[in-house]
Design brief:
Keywords: Signal
Radius of gyration: 22 Å
Strand content: 25-35%
Helix content: 25-40%
Number of strands: 16
């Protein structure tokens, strides 16, 4: 082998390895943020049930938000119209309502809670005026403030519905904040609203799903996608989910909560290779 060829081969191998490492890092960051969203939403889902069941002065409720404390305890906070905390629901062992701890004492926000309250309120006001947000029948926004481990402040908007047998992806947004809690950037994460049936009349119960991303700024699966998949896993029992863009394919294993991202062209080459190695399998699939 010539020296130039040898070094070229080394460079190509190094580039492939570096690309794989970068995608692995991106996948871990997306997964971590998706899980943080999921934990916050779970605290809100069940925290709301516990609070409403025990708090009778409904006209006094101003709003709520959830966050993960430093001791890793998911906590849902309800506040009054005078911006005082009127209910704190913690889930120290699980998200089972019977395991929650409810405190209905009135108090001021902690310093951390002030940050969550401030960015959530700013996001809620932006929702009223920014035309980037779209509204659909039977669809509501879940507003989820998070402050991640890097102290980055964000508010996600996820679309939800009370209709049965549907899982919604898309019509979701992200607001990034500066350190002083001023809005830095507002962006949409999907180009449209996508709905998937858990049970399809033609094929029965679905076992997986796929959708595509066309926005250049979001070529990978989003944290909101992962949050949605985890929230609805107990209803869908999906084994996997795939998000495809022009450059990348994101593969979510719902059983192990593992995320893998690879270049779409690489995946296509692997699939072509598998077709050549095992043509009988693909012939069977085509017949079906």
């Amino acid at each position: 082998m010539k020296i130039k060829t040898f070094y070229l081969l080394l460079f190509v191998m190094f580039s492939i390895q570096l690309s794989a490492q970068n995608l692995e890092k991106i996948a871990q960051e997306i997964k971590d943020e998706g899980i943080q969203l999921y934990r916050s939403e779970m605290a809100s889902w069940y925290g709301t049930d516990v609070f409403i069941e025990n708090y009778k002065e409904r006209d006094n409720i101003g709003g709520y938000f959830s966050y993960i404390k430093e001791d890793e305890v998911p906590t849902c906070v309800f506040y009054s119209k005078e911006n005082k905390v009127i209910g704190t629901i913690s889930f120290p062992t699980s998200y089972e309502p019977r395991n929650s701890k409810l405190d209905l004492s009135v108090r001021d926000f902690t310093e951390v809670e002030k940050e969550y309250f401030t960015i959530r309120k700013a996001a809620q006001e932006r929702l009223k005026t920014d035309t980037i947000f779209k509204f659909y029948n039977n669809v509501n926004y879940n507003i989820v403030p998070i402050i991640n481990k890097n102290k980055e402040k964000k508010v996600y908007f996820l679309s939800g519905t009370n209709l049965n047998n549907l899982v919604l992806f898309g019509n979701d947004y992200l607001i990034d904040f500066n350190k002083d809690n001023s809005i830095k950037k507002v962006q949409k994460l999907h180009n449209s609203l996508l709905s998937f049936k858990i049970y399809d009349e033609k094929i029965g119960k679905t076992v997986s799903g796929v959708h595509s991303h066309v926005l250049e700024d979001w070529p990978f699966i989003t944290p909101t996608d992962i949050c949605t998949l985890m929230l609805y896993q107990k209803f869908t029992n999906w084994e996997s989910y795939t998000v495809v863009s022009k450059k990348y394919t994101s593969l979510w294993n719902a059983k192990s909560n593992h995320l893998m991202i690879m270049k779409t062209e690489v995946l296509e080459k692997i699939q072509e290779d598998q077709k050549k190695r095992h043509p009988e399998r693909y012939q069977e699939q085509e017949k079906k």
